[in-house]
Amino acid sequence: MEYELEVFEVYDDGDQTSSKRHLKHNRKKCKQKQKTTVLNIESTDNDIHRSKTSVLSSDRRHLSFRESILSVFSKLVVWRDQKRYQSTVPDKLDSPHSSKDFRKGYIPCDNQRRIHANDRAFNSQFRYASNYIKTSKYSILTFVPLNLFEQFQRLANFYFLCLLVLQLIPAISSLTPVTTALPLIGVLGLTAIKDAYDDIQRHISDSQVNNRKSRVVHNGQLVNEKWSAVQVGDIIRMDNNSFIAADVLLLTSSEPNGLCYIETSELDGETNLKCRQCLVETAEMGQDDVLIGEFDGEIICETPNNLLNKFEGVLIWKGKTYPLDNDKIMLRGCVLRNTQWCYGVVIFAGKDTKLMQNSGKSKFKRTSIDRLLNFLIIGIVFFLLSMCLFCMVACGIWESLVGQYFQTFLPWDTLVPSEPLGGATIIALLVFFSYAIVLNTVVPISLYVSVEVIRFVQSFLINWDEQMYYDKTGTHAKARTTTLNEELGQIEYVFSDKTGTLTQNIMTFNKCSIGGHSFGDVIDQRTGDVIEISENTEPLDFSFNPNYEPEFKFYDGQLLDAVRRRDEDVFSFFRLLALCHTVMSENREGRLEYQAQSPDEAALVSAARNFGFVFIERAPNSITIEVMGVKEVYELLCILDFNNVRKRMSVILRKNGNLRLYCKGADNVIYERLRSGNDEVKQKTQEHLNKFAGEGLRTLCLASRDLEEEFFNNWKQRHQEAAIALDGREERLDAIYEEIERDMDLVGVTAIEDRLQDGVPQTIANLILAGIKIWVLTGDKQETAINIGYSCQLLTDELVDVFIVDASTYDEVHQQLLKFRDNIKIVHTFQPRSPVGIQLGTSNGKMEASNHSTGTSTPPQPANPPAVSVVTFRWDDDIDRCENTRASTELEYHNGIEEAPAEESTAGFAIIINGHSLVHCLHPQMERLFLEVVMQCKSVICCRVTPLQKALVVELIKKSRQAVTLAIGDGANDVSMIKAAHIGVGISGQEGMQAVLASDYSIAQFRFLERLLLTVFDPMYISIYNLFYTSLPVLGVGIFDQDVNDKNSVLYPQLYRPGHYNKFFNKKEFFRSALQGCFVSAVLFFIPLGTYFDAVSPNGQGLSDYMLFCSATAAMLVIVNTAQIALDTMYWTVFNHIMIWGSLAFYFVADNFYNYICNGPYVGSLTQAMSEANFWFTAVLVVIISIMPVLAWRFYFVDVFPTLSDRVRLKQRMAQVRSRQSQDTLRMPSSRRARRSIRSGYAFAHQEGFGRLITSGKIMRKLPNPEFNIPNIINKLNMNSGSSNSGQKNHTSTDPHSHDGSSSSSGMRAPMQDLDTINL
Which residues are CB-neighbours of 1295 under 8 A, at least 6 positions away? Predict the structure, then answer.
């Protein structure tokens, strides 16, 4: 057998403009027996790369040991067993892999996957993964061993197992093994039942997914199969709006040119539709099941990986080889949209799909309470061993000096040698284990029983909470695990997805500005105030329009009145919305339906439709709309497509001989290209833009320009030359676009609301006040993420600066982070922390859109302080000064010291990080700098991140901050993040359930997270007393008790902060409780001892016997414990009364039952003790002495140093209800929604490429309009401005394609064209 070591070192070229990589490849053969073929391994996009200078420079800093180890892993080291890589398929003489395959650079080898379509027998020999999905942890066979292994990781369980083994040895055991076996079996059994219940729920969820139906082609017929039965190589049919069962290669679809549309929000969080196109050759099969069943193509492709945007392979069919890329692949988790049907062959199934490759591994999650309990148990065990050691030494000394002479009365065991020294030594050793058994109650196994019962019952309380029930979908909150409840009270970081978690992914046309007039606000005619729109607000009636949509709602009647009186500016506004887009229309069952690439564009076209400007249909060279019932047909001359650099799109149309350009885009981009003049309208429109942006709306500017025929013909000719250029095509096209998109007239502004889920801003505000830091991790684009950040008020205009990390190389990202760190230091230097909670800002607290700190900005100089510094006070400090009779809402009091929340930056900073920059930020050599910057920012938003990057960010915070984290999401792209966090929360009730299946808790709405965290308290702070209490009252307090009611828990989020510091359960509290227990134990022993020592009853009967003393002391113990736990109970329910007082009564009943019915050894002892007055006086004295120090301690600190919870409880008891105004002010100032902002509200979830698809005709079912034929356009390009009439003569010339179907129906497909075809 031969092994081979390959080392790859990857680094970037020094030239930043070049993307070329250099590969250093060192190979060492350890042993060579035969000549073998070495396989090439291609570097992927996930290779960790740095600039050449940062890797090879001689003056780089010395690395720490940890960094040195991590740097080794930055090199790819591959050990390979070459025998393992030999093909399992014997070479054939007629193998399709000829020498031309090698010349093409695609070498068939064993790190590739070979698939034969419709050939299960061939594919089965490779043992590819089935499509069965498993998220459960156990099976019937593995449940017992795996569950016991997990449970014995708890040291107490392992300790009692060892103790049980010792008790089975008669020579050292003085107690029956039953005393240990029963509690141990009870703990293990209860935990096993709980874990089995959790896993059964996972099995049920897995079964629901695996039993979904899929239509598979078998022998030329469609057969219904379960998802789990689908195999690699099968061809499946997918229908519109259905989930895709596996990763498939698209073969054919219902749309023209083999196109189909998918929504990938489950994978990457992006809401806009993506286009996929199959090969022209396979698209010809249509939906003929016989032809598809006979398809026998061979696919050779890459092995399973987690790269969502990369796929490489070839299809070999009918002797020809076709290249395959990511544009032909549809991934599991995607949803088919706007496509009636499509067929595809399964490439990856089950765990090999890219969705599951990004899901991460399920981890055994243990709470900090469990870890602390393990530490405490270790301490208790060492204390026990020290006691046993002391007793062993004392026994050895006594036996050697005294005991050997009493063998007549106390004979030694036969195992003990008769020699005095040796015998004493053996006896001492045996006594060590005997004392370990006798004193085993020092280790509190009942503590674990109480903890597990409390967790189990609390999980049901979460499931039954009616205030976390979402009636629209009928979904309850659900605790999918019962082992993590106490972690809910210690969350420091929340990592949230955006789409479907914070937002509803519903775009609504909310407001607009036309000709300097704002529309959308509902004004009270009597007072002139703006009326808040609610569910009770009556929307406008659009039923006069036969094409209106019942679900469309608009409330400002002034805009509809302007349409009815045919206002010229309003007509121009809506006509632009109806014409400037890439939406496709389709008539289904007599109803006009739109297929939009993005929800933004769908909302705009829908708004125009409802106001009477209906987009009817399009052809490759025409657009048809209906304006107030009158049909208008426009000749489509050109589409200047949208991209993220241009931030705008335009169309050029001709109607009645007039040429006009319509454009929509970002406000700053459009304003730069407006012609001079009309300043008053521009200024008013800018004010409206600022107002809309301040309300968190997504804005677009609309503009138009009339064109001269001569200018356009000249421009079109140069546009054609740029479009077919081989070098610098994109740059030349951008320059051509700039020539025509200028000197435009401002038409208006649209304001779309990316509707948040109900209660999201309030929930985020309360969680932030509770000291919880919220990070948003989304796969959506930067502008959209920033806009949502302002909508949910993670970003505000009061922030000093918003840092944007968008560089592409390691060095550039490093420079940006250094600059941001310097900016923060400068602000902290010249604007230090104010002792009275003053927040400092710059330039009136506002942030210029152009001043965002990006890679191109210049870092400020430390020597020059800011010229203007305006001091503003925090709104919550105003409340504190007004309400000086209650505790601060920002501060907690600990031991008389006023402490501000840790790590809270008074200077407001936020940071937005792009995914390609995050790759470098997570590099081991940069993560420290990255953390230094982000930890000083109030808000962190990561956009364009992959699922695995989300998990890496969570892991980084867990590792570096040692903080308890929570991740919440609703899609498959959030699964890895949910699994990585301490607590994973899935949003249920959505289309996809992958996040719910991987979560620990599921809720229907993000707003329920507030109640889940702020009202589910840590039950462990009282369970430590279980060392000394009985179990039933502890369960009552742990399950039902609450320090304040649920309303005040939400009203005062700062009550949550002590959980961050483990104030209720830590080592200090444990040892304090242990000292209290020792004191109570001493009181319980010595006071009854003094009472009953040589005591005599009034009738002369002795009371100093051992049995009576033990019975009286035990009864007093139960009374003291009951009084103590009643004192600790802050919230009394019927269950608390039953458990506390019932437990006390049960003790006396059980004692009499055991002694009188079961003939116990203590018959009559307790009865005799209780018949004497000594018992009752002693019991009262013991209770007072035991409880009084606790009462005095608590009274002192509550009176002198009250915490916020103490004051809230006082307010509850005094029944003082906070006024509605103060509630609103404390929770969230609603006035912020109405503030104006000078930032840009631009955010458009759109992609380039659809313009080319439309003008090329590839996307069209309808053939080009013969009225606007292509030869006519070409002729016009060759004419001067004076020969336009002759062009009109040629207007009637026939379309060269019309002879074979120009008169066909609109349902006929256009001819097949390549993706890059440009129709001129």
Answer: 1264, 1266, 1269, 1270, 1271, 1302
Tell me which residue of 413, 387, 396, 264 sits closest to 333, measured CA to CA.
264
- Number of Cβ atoms within 10 Å of the Cβ of 754: 28
How many CB atoms lie under 10 A from the CB of residue 632? Answer: 16
Annotated binding site for ATP: 497-499, 601, 642, 664, 698, 778-780, 944, 950, 973-974
In 1153-1295, alpha helices (H): 1165-1170, 1173-1200, 1204-1213, 1220-1227, 1250-1256, 1270-1277, 1284-1289
CB-based contacts of 795: which residues, under 8 Å, 6+ apart? 786, 789, 802, 910, 939, 941
Are residues 772 and 493 in contact, defined by beta-carbon separation less than 8 angstroms? yes
Furthest-apart CA pair in the chain: how many Å? 139
| Cα gap 1284→1292, rounded to integer Å | 14
Of 199, 289, 497, 1000, the catalytic one is: 497
Known binding-site residues for Mg(2+) equal 497, 499, 970, 974
pLDDT of 1243: 61
| pLDDT, block means (10 residues), the chain with 1320 residues | 37 38 37 34 37 36 43 37 34 37 40 91 92 87 90 79 83 74 82 83 85 90 91 93 92 88 75 83 90 92 87 92 91 87 94 82 73 79 88 88 76 75 84 81 70 79 87 86 82 88 85 92 82 84 90 91 93 94 83 83 93 90 91 92 84 92 91 90 91 85 93 90 81 88 93 87 87 88 83 83 90 93 85 40 34 39 38 37 37 38 55 92 92 91 87 91 89 83 82 72 90 61 34 62 68 69 69 79 86 77 76 84 80 76 79 74 77 85 86 79 75 56 41 49 61 63 57 48 40 38 36 36
> What is the gyration radius of the CA atoms in the chain, in angstroms?
38
Residue 272 phi, psi (nearest 5): -75, 150
CA atoms within 13 A on the CB side of 192: 17
Q: In what order do the strands lie in the sheet with 247-253?
A: 221-226, 213-218, 235-239, 341-348, 247-253, 329-330
Nearest by Cα to 278 from 254, 308, 303, 312: 254
Q: Which tokens is 125 given?
A: 């020999």
- Whether 207 and 305 have beta carbons less than 8 Å apart is answered as no
pLDDT at 360: 66
Task: Establish whether 497 is a catalytic residue.
Answer: yes
Q: Which residues fall within 8 angstroms of residue 810, CB to CB, at 6 or more apart?
A: 12, 49, 50, 51, 54, 920, 923, 926
Contacts of 207 (CB under 8 A, 6+ apart): none
End-to-end CA distance of the chain: 62
Instruction: Quote the DSSP letter at residue 1153.
Output: I
- Contact of 43 with 8, CB cutoff 8 Å: yes
What secondary structure does DSSP assign to 974-1040, as a single string? GHHHHHHSSEEEEE-SSS--HHHHH-SEEESSTTHHHHHHHSS--THHHHGGGGTS-HHHHHHHHHH
901, 631, 942: which is closest to 779 by C-alpha?
Answer: 942
Sequence-separated contacts (24+) of 531-535 with Cβ below 8 Å? none
Binding residues: 497-499, 601, 642, 664, 698, 778-780, 944, 950, 970, 973-974
How far apart are alpha carbons 990 and 979 in whole angstroms? Answer: 19
pLDDT, residue 732, reads 86
- Can you read off the two tokens belonging to residue 521? 């606000």
Amino acid at 1151: D
Residues 6+ apart with CB under 8 A from 524: 530, 531
Buried b (16+ CB within 10 A) or exposed e, 117-131: bbeeeebeeeebbbb
Give Cβ neighbours of residue 1099 (< 8 Å, ≥ 6 apart). none
Residue that is written with structure tokens 């113990």 in the block: 1117
